[in-house]
Design goal:
With 299 residues, the chain is of the alpha+beta class. The protein folds into two domains: 155 residues, Ribosomal Protein S5, domain 2 (2-Layer Sandwich); 127 residues, GHMP kinase, C-terminal domain (Alpha-Beta Plaits, 2-Layer Sandwich). Helix content is 39%, strand content 24%. Strands 1, 2, 3, 4, 5, 6 and 11 form a seven-stranded mixed beta sheet that branches. Strands 8-9-7-10 form a four-stranded antiparallel beta sheet. The radius of gyration is 19 Å and the shape is globular. The protein binds L-homoserine. L-homoserine binds next to α5.
C-alpha cells in the first residue's frame, strides 16, 4: 500500500493547535507492508530529497504513527515502512505530520479501513509526539483529510478557494525546533490580550466559513503566539511589512516557523516584495504559490 500525504501550514495565526491547511507545496510517500508479530512498526528504508534528515527504525514519526494505528485497531502485526521524504523537515511545513499521516492512512487501508477519522488523527498525532514531544493535531488532521481542518469539539473540514505565497527561508534551525518554539508561548495572558487574540480567531473562522478573503486575512494577521515567536523567526518584521505593502491580505508564521504564509491578493506582487525583503536581509529563500491540497490517499 503506497500513500501520499501533503505538507501543511498550521495555526494560520490565531488558530494555534486547532487549525491547519494542507498545501500543495511538498509531499511524502509511505509504503507499508504488514507482517506478523507486534503491534510494532519501523522504517526500513528512506529515500527522497530529505532522506538524510530523518531517522530509520522505530524513532521515525511514521513508525510511531503506524504503531499507534495498529494498537488502536488491536492488530498483532508489524508495519515495515519505506518512506520517500519530500517535505523539508524543520521549516514549519508539517514534515513529520506528513510522514505520520501517510503511515497511519497506509496501515488503516491495509487493514481494510477499520479506523475512524478521529482515531486516524490520534494515531498520526503520536508521530508528532515522537518528533516534537507534543501530540498536536493541527498538521496531521489537514494532511490526512485535505483542505482546511478546524479541530474544536467536532472536526470541521472546508475546501476554501484561497491562494497563498509560501516563503521558506533556508536559515539554520535550532535543535528540537518545535519544542523550542512552543517554549516561548506564554502560559498566562491578560484578558485584554486574550480578547485581541480571539477577536482575530473569530474573523479567521468566519472568513473561512463565508469565503470572505479580507476577513480571513485580517484574522490571520494577529496572534499572541506569532507575536511571542516573532523574534525567533528570521526577518519576521521586515518580510511581514514587505508582504503587506505588496498587497498580502494576511500574514502568519507557518506552524512553528521559520516559513511564512501570505494570503493573496496579487501573488506575483507579493512574491516580488517578499523576495526583495529577504534579499536585503541576505537570507536565502524559496518562494512558492500554493493552494489547498487533498488528503492522504493511495497512489
Ligand atoms: N501548532 C503547532 C505549533 C504546529 O505551532 O507549535 C507545529 O508544527
Amino acid at each position: 500500500m503506497r500513500v501520499r500525504a501533503w505538507s501543511t501550514s498550521a495555526n494560520l495565526g490565531p488558530g494555534y493547535d486547532i487549525m491547519g491547511i494542507a498545501i500543495d507545496a511538498f509531499f511524502d510517500v509511505v509504503e507499508v507492508q504488514l507482517v506478523s508479530g507486534g503491534p510494532d512498526a519501523l522504517v526500513t528504508k528512506v529515500e527522497g530529497p530529505y532522506a538524510a534528515s530523518v531517522p530509520l527504525g522505530r524513532g521515525n514519526s511514521a513508525a510511531a504513527a503506524a504503531r499507534a494505528a495498529l494498537e488502536m485497531a488491536e492488530q498483532r502485526l508489524t508495519a515495515r515502512i519505506s518512506l520517500w521524504k519530500g517535505v523539508p523537515p524543520g521549516r514549519g511545513l508539517g514534515s513529520s505530520g506528513a510522514s505520520s499521516s501517510a503511515a497511519a492512512r497506509a496501515v488503516d487501508l491495509e487493514l481494510g479501513d477499520l479506523l475512524s477519522e478521529k482515531q486516524l488523527i490520534r494515531a498520526a498525532a503520536e508521530g508528532e509526539r515522537e518528533a516534537s514531544g507534543s501530540p498536536h493535531p493541527d498538521n496531521v488532521a489537514p494532511s490526512l483529510l485535505g483542505g482546511l481542518v478546524l479541530m474544536g469539539s467536532r472536526i470541521v473540514k472546508l475546501q476554501p478557494r484561497v491562494e497563498f505565497v509560501l516563503a521558506i527561508p533556508w536559515t539554520p534551525i535550532p535543535e528540537r525546533k518545535t519544542e523550542r518554539m512552543r517554549s516561548v508561548v506564554p502560559d498566562i495572558v491578560s484578558i485584554g490580550d486574550m480578547v485581541r487574540h480571539y477577536s482575530h480567531l473569530a474573523s479567521l473562522v468566519l472568513g473561512f466559513a463565508t469565503g470572505d478573503l479580507e476577513l480571513i486575512g485580517e484574522g490571520m494577521s494577529f496572534s499572541l503566539i506569532d507575536e511571542a515567536r516573532s523574534g525567533l523567526v528570521p526577518g519576521y518584521s521586515e518580510v511581514r511589512s514587505a508582504a503587506l505593502k505588496s498587497g498580502a491580505l494576511g500574514t502568519s508564521i507557518s506552524g512553528a516557523g521559520p516559513s511564512m504564509l501570505f494570503l493573496c491578493g496579487d501573488c506575483e506582487g507579493i512574491m516580488e516584495g517578499v523576495r526583495r525583503a529577504y534579499k536585503d536581509l541576505a537570507i536565502p529563500v524559496t518562494l512558492m504559490r500554493v493552494s489547498p491540497a487533498e488528503g492522504a490517499a493511495e497512489i
